[in-house]
Design brief:
The chain has 348 residues and is an all-beta fold. The protein has helices spanning 3-7, 301-305, and strands at 16-22, 33-42, 47-55, 60-64, 93-98, 100-101, 115-121, 128-133, 141-142, 160-169, 174-182, 197-204, 211-217, 230-238, 244-251, 271-277, 287-288, 312-319, 325-331, 338-343. A five-stranded mixed sheet has the order 6-10-11-12-13, with no helix packed on it. Strands 1-20-19-18 form a four-stranded antiparallel sheet, with no helix packed on it. Strand 3 (47-55) and strand 4 (60-64) form a beta hairpin.
Length: 348
């Protein structure tokens, strides 16, 4: 295994569609959504453990027992997570994400001997909470108080705090939380004033509470840009050409609060792409890439035949031994999503 490639990510120039990895069953767990993947190495299974948005009920996990073969047919049927105190979150939870080592992609952070999971409550106002376990298999125990809640009136995250990801900076003894903030009121920006933005918060390990940092990546202020409408969830990786690379989903379409469709806050299309940052600590001065990974009209016919299209939702990079790169993402219309993979040819 190449330690250099394990620690640094270079954006590949092209990707090859690998097909559906986890599909929606006709009923039961995951019959509406199988997506929003977060993947970490798990030595106890000889491969990887994926945490995902499995709806219903909202959360799930799947196992791959190979370190190199991670495509279709290699992942177990997803099953819901287990919690010791589910009563703490009476409305349920969704979109779980394992806190990862900021400098070692796909490595679950061990913080004082435990693993940490963040997730989003499913109440009328979405908020973020946190759980701990001694094993990646769980069971997970929720902290009794929410971690991040909606902001003050007029703030970028007044309505919801959603789609969280989290990264442990061991030398700083801090956890950086990145999340999707939804406003209730127009924000002071010319392009997409009602668009969701990427926000951040910091927690000091061993101390209660977080410090909110506000929005760190708003919609691009260039009209027509692929990320000019709204901003989704983000995975942060240490980069080769830039200090940090953010893999993120976003849309060119600005939300219209007068539209009461189910997808009003996230109008289509959702597209995947990158942002980069050269700060030592990635909480400011992010820059959008000029183009997304792929537009709807660019999806090959063979991939469309398997259900890709409508939206390309949350994306997640998995760096493989030897430098191979796989990218997982859910595709489909809102609430009708399943999980796909792309591979970077020649990554080594």
């Amino acid at each position: 295994m190449s330690d250099i490639l394990l620690l640094k990510f270079a954006i590949p120039p092209r990707w090859i569609h690998g097909g559906p990895v986890l599909t929606r069953p006709t009923r039961g767990a995951g019959s509406h959504v199988v997506g929003d993947p977060c993947i970490v190495r798990d030595p106890s299974v000889g491969g990887y453990r994926m945490f995902l948005f499995l709806y219903p009920p909202g959360h799930g996990q799947s196992i791959c027992r190979s370190l190199t073969d991670v495509g279709p047919g290699q992942w177990s049927a997803p099953a819901p997570l287990e919690f010791t105190n589910p009563e703490v979150i009476p409305d349920g939870t969704h979109k779980p994400y394992i806190v990862q080592d900021a400098h070692r992609p796909n490595e679950a952070a061990q913080i004082d001997g435990r693993y940490c999971l963040v997730s989003v409550g499913m109440g009328q106002s979405k908020y973020i909470h946190q759980a701990w376990a001694s094993s990646l298999a769980g069971p997970w125990t929720w902290e009794k108080q929410p971690l991040i809640v909606g902001g003050a009136p007029g703030s970028f995250d007044e309505k919801h705090a959603d789609a969280v990801s989290a990264f442990h900076f061991s030398q700083r003894r801090e956890i950086l939380y990145c999340y999707m903030g939804y406003p209730r009121q127009a924000q002071p920006r010319a392009v997409s004033p009602f668009g969701n933005a990427q926000g951040a918060a910091i927690a000091r390990v061993g101390k209660p509470g977080v410090v909110k940092l506000g929005q760190v990546l708003p919609p691009c202020q260039q009209k027509g840009h692929w990320a000019a409408g709204w901003v989704g969830g983000m995975q942060i990786l240490p980069g080769v050409k830039s200090r940090w690379v953010g893999l993120i989903n976003a849309s060119p379409t600005a939300p219209d609060p007068a539209n009461k469709a189910v997808w009003t806050e996230e109008p289509p299309p959702s597209l995947g792409g990158f942002a980069v940052c050269d700060e030592e600590f990635p909480i400011a001065n992010w820059r959008w890439s000029d183009a997304p990974l792929e537009r709807m009209e660019d999806i090959p016919a063979a991939a469309q035949a398997t259900g890709e299209g409508g939206n390309l939702w949350r994306h997640h990079i998995l760096i493989l031994p030897g430098g191979g790169v796989a990218m997982f993402y859910n595709a489909g219309h809102y609430g009708q999503e399943q999980l796909y993979v792309k591979f970077a040819p020649g990554a080594s």
